[in-house]
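Quick question, first post here. What does this chain look like in 3D?
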Amino acid sequence: MTPWIIALCAVLLAAAVIGYDRYRVSRTMHTLDRMLDDAIGGTFAASRFDESRLSAIEAKMQRYLEASGTSKAQLAEQKAHVQALIADVSHQTKTPIANILLYAELLGDKSLPEDCRDCVQALSAQAEKLRFLIEALVKAGRLETGVIAVHAKPNSVATLVQDALLEAAPKAAAKGIFLSGTPADETACFDHKWTLEALGNLLDNAIKYTPAGGSVTVSVVPYELFCRIDVTDTGIGLSEEESSRVFARFYRTPAAQEAPGVGLGLYLAREIAAANGGYIKVSSHPGAGSTFSLFLPRREA
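> Answer (accepted):
Ran it through. Tokens below.
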């Protein structure tokens, strides 16, 4: 047999082996694709009962889907328990806290010795703090479990900023902080009520950690996909490590432990921003103030 015939046979044999191998890979990929489609559609069932690799993959996928189904059911049950607990906490604590505040106010109107008057003021302040904590926890829990739905739709950013500034003005004035905002005729997609709370939390945070005589400024920067609302203060600022932790639930900077608050405001603001399809970023340096940027989508998702 001549060498060229041997070479031709070798080439044909190699081509056949490569072609068969490609066929097997293509068939395997097709089978895996079908399995994934069935899994997504909820109709997956193992069909191979042999010693092949695909049979092992099917068995693993079936075990995974069964475990996922169990986890999903457990998660739904836990979510229902959390919703019930939130509703119960909200209902059971509202009246006692309101009564404590009422009786503290009635006591404050009476002629009391100076030391007793100080105790009444402390009682009223602690009751207010407890009321704020309960309300913040309830809001956070309702957002996380989906009890509260955030309905994003086209809204005026200028109106949002104006409403937030009006709400924050008394607190800023009482502390001697200059509060200002630049008007911006922009539109973004957000739930006005909940986004007002998020922006209000950013402003409250800025006022809280800015010394008397400082300033807090709100500005708007439009982009193609997002509208950015900056809340810039001249406060104590954050370290790089703190900037990565500041949105965590109950986190408070060690430099301001004496300031009022429970560490839920920024966490709630981030959750509301995410529910709108946006996000929040922070830029800060110790002693040089901070800028919290709320990004809101320009178009509906």
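The mean pLDDT is 78.
The first helix runs from residue 3 to 41.
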